[in-house]
């Protein structure tokens, strides 16, 4: 395993309605199977993996299974109907207005989210520089390259700073579901505007948690196509890490 990136992987699923149609039931049942493997959550994952309590073979199998589920026909069909969105809590979440740990931030977010959306599954990875490029390359990168860094700590532009942030620790991927087909818009409404300095809304998660624009903490897909693309990028990453020597 290169750089032990995969040691941060610890997926788990929350409860869901067993009476959904067979396609969804099979998908969520398989996610539940991954949960039942006993891989731990964010707070203790690094310690458990570093102690060798989870074998590399087990990690490889887990990555392959999760990658298969993320890019399955069932998952993409649900995404096309607008029932699933891709959300992410970025690294460095312990730097927040409420001065709570990153694990507490994740729990706080999920409690708020449950008023409108179902948490289907959650897992954490550490972004590689290559994955950041694939995830945010193109227009987002071009915009940030033209901007000065937020904190001016040895970076030439905002993109360098952002890339450094995104590779600095585990990011939590959270798949959210809305049976009404409004998963993308509901999550983005909960998240709030990216510019928390000039457009902070205390009714949104960024407004309640983010200190500044250096790390506004959260990511949300902007369309069903983005959901599928981001699922595939993460699935490809998992397969790359599972096959790394």
Instruction: Summarize the amount of helix as a percent range.
Output: 40-55%
The total strand number stands at: 5
Q: According to CATH, what is the topology?
A: Alpha-Beta Plaits
- The secondary-structure class comes to alpha+beta
Report the β-strand fraction as a percent range: 5-15%
Q: Give the termini distance in whole angstroms.
A: 5 Å
Instruction: List segments where confidence is low: pLDDT < 50 over at least 5 consecutive residues.
Output: 1-20, 36-51
**What is the name of the CATH superfamily?**
Nucleoside diphosphate kinase-like domain
Shape: globular
Which features does this protein show?
single chain; 245 residues; Alpha-Beta Plaits; 11 helices
Describe the protein's topology.
Layout: E1 12-13, H1 22-35, H2 45-50, H3 56-70, H4 73-80, E2 84-89, H5 102-113, E3 118-125, H6 129-136, H7 139-145, H8 158-166, E4 171-177, H9 183-191, H10 205-209, E5 218-220, H11 224-243
Antiparallel strand pairs: 1-3, 2-4, 2-5, 3-4
Helix pairs in contact: 1-3, 3-11, 4-11, 7-8
Notes on the protein architecture:
It is a single chain. With 245 residues, the protein is α+β, with helices and mostly antiparallel strands. It has a single domain (2-126, 169-243), classed as 2-Layer Sandwich (Alpha-Beta Plaits). It has helices at residues 22-35, 45-50, 56-70, 73-80, 102-113, 129-136, 139-145, 158-166, 183-191, 205-209, 224-243; strands spanning 12-13, 84-89, 118-125, 171-177, 218-220. Strands 1-3-4-2-5 form a five-stranded antiparallel beta sheet, with helices on both faces. Helix 7 crosses helix 8. The radius of gyration is 17 Å and the shape is globular. The N and C termini lie close together (5 Å).
């Amino acid at each position: 395993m290169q750089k032990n990136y995969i040691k941060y992987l610890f997926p788990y699923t929350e409860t869901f309605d067993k009476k959904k149609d067979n396609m969804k039931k099979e998908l969520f049942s398989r996610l539940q199977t991954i949960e039942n493997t006993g891989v731990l959550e964010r707070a203790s994952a690094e310690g458990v993996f570093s102690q060798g309590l989870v074998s590399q073979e087990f990690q490889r199998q887990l990555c392959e299974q999760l990658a298969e589920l993320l890019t399955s026909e069932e998952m993409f069909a649900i995404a096309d109907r607008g029932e699933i969105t891709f959300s992410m809590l970025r690294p460095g979440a312990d730097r927040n207005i409420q001065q709570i740990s990153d694990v507490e931030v994740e729990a706080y977010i999920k409690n708020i989210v449950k008023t409108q959306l179902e948490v289907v599954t959650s897992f954490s990875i550490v972004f590689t520089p290559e994955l950041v490029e694939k995830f945010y390359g193109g227009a987002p990168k071009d915009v940030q390259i033209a901007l000065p860094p937020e904190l001016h700590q040895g970076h030439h532009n905002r993109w360098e700073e952002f890339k450094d942030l995104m590779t600095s620790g585990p990011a939590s991927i959270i798949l959210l579901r809305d049976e009404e087909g409004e998963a993308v818009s509901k999550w983005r409404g909960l998240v709030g505007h990216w510019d928390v300095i000039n457009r902070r809304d205390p009714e949104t998660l960024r407004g309640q948690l983010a200190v500044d624009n250096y790390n506004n903490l959260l990511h949300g897909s902007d369309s069903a196509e983005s959901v599928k693309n981001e699922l595939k990028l993460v699935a490809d990453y998992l397969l790359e890490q599972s096959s790394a020597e």
